[in-house]
Amino acid sequence: MGEAAAAMAQKSVKNSSSDPSDFKVIKEGEAEILMLANNEVFFNKTQVNNRDMSIAVLRTFISKRAAEHEAMMAKKMKRGQRLPVDENVEPTTEMEEATADSSEKSNGECIEQVEPPQDEPTKISEESSTMREGKGRREIKPLRVLEALAASGLRALRYAREVEGIDQVVALDNDKASVEACQRNIKFNGSVASEKVQSHLADARVFMLTHPKEFDVVDLDPYGSPSVFLDSAVQSVVDGGLLMCTATDMAVLCGGNGEVCYSKYGSYPLRGKYCHEMALRILLASIESHANRYKRYIVPIISVQMDFYVRVFVRLYTSASEMKNTPLKLSYVYQCIGCDSFHLQALARTVSKNNSIRYMPGFAPAVPQECNHCGKKFNMGGPIWSAPIHDQEWVSSMLADVNSMKDRYPAYDRISAVLTTISEELPDVPLFLSLHNLCATLKCTSPSAVIFRSAVINAGYRISGTHVNPLGLKSDAPMDVIWDIMRCWVENHPVKAQPSDQPGSVILAKEPTLRANFARAVASLSKGQAKKVARFLPNPERHWGPKPRAGRQIKSKHASLLGPQAVNGCSSHEVDEPDAKRQKIDEPATASE
Fold first, then answer.
1. For the whole model, what pTM was predicted?
2. According to the UniProt entry, which residue ranges have a biased composition of type Acidic residues (predicted)?
């Protein structure tokens, strides 16, 4: 046991080395960090897309927040109301008041004013908790950002150095090595970072629970599922504040382990072509569920699926009346096991009577026991968030900001492509179709996307692409119309005879009730496509994807993630097992002696 302890101590000294030659300088944006090569602290270069998108959202959030503040102040001035000047009375924050005034406009279904929050922020410094008095007007306070899982601190440093208007960034981690690395990187980035960024060794869940409604922005970017952090996170954000949340457990969210997904997120996933968008909507529904427990609700700003993860950006508000609308935003999904047709079943509905609104259960069933098209059974999943997942006004503002500051975004090409595609999506159409999947069901050749889009548009319906899948198509056309279009296509492009019990054969045996018009429609190409804007870019380099968890030994099996060079480079260093594993192995041996 003495030898094992000595080896562990020697490794600890080596890992905490202060020799600059032991570190590698990594620069991203305006921030630089020092990293050791032993995977002690997690860092993934691929997440530059994630960090750039977050910075773009933060910049837009700051400008929108300032505009809301100005509108609220102008409204107060117009009403002739005087601002409170008593320093002993803590006023309601501007964002909370702006939320109350603008909730009906931004979330139209609510018929009551937003209620003031019951719990005011506690134990906040006077500088950040009160508004600065200007010339007859109060100025909006700078943002306080919480990065709940900081690791090396790169994200927090980029926020502090690149986003104007941020007053403080609190970077947390419950790993001592990560906190030491973060503090080292804060000093390495100079005075601006040292003044704005604070690093603490703490459990993010406990910290957020003990700081309710204190942070304007909370960023959750865990390794895996964020489910254990959501309950405390929704309590830590101020009214009108921003919650940014990443989930990388895509195998769970996309239907690989449905029972695990239900235990973590409260929804059952389906394995359809739209599974990645469904993952976004499951995550949004889960955040809404946690927020509802505290009379709060979410308003999605933008929700993206990139690389190997999903990330959502939502604003949080407090209102018991608006919270009642949550069941109207949730739906179950029925997916046919034969032809992959899907239908949504709303969880609830409203009934208006005598100038009042009553909330009633949704009408059911949305589908019969057997599919009308192919005669097969349905799988049922959900509930998912079926309301819009993007605010198109925000997306347009973000895209304009990114294009005007392209030199300040290392991943400009990728995030501008994603934002361009999102700006063209139909906002009120949940999930999407796959043209190749439709053709696979019928065993026919595939029409071009332009021809299929034209047929849908000529039939009187809307259609768009999706940022999730280059082959995905969003449309408000019912599945009856979609299959009629495909029947008409097959009439002009015959297929080989298939067994009569196959889903495609059953579908083609029916005569189309709609005669499709495949003449090219003017709107068959989006603005981005017409201008030949790149929308789906290849990875910039090989092995662009997830990385092993911090502290995990790099072995040959990680070559597919890191590349042979990285694995060979680590093999030349000391390759001991992680401390926790070594300790578990050594203790039984000592006990036996």
1. 0.81
2. 87-99
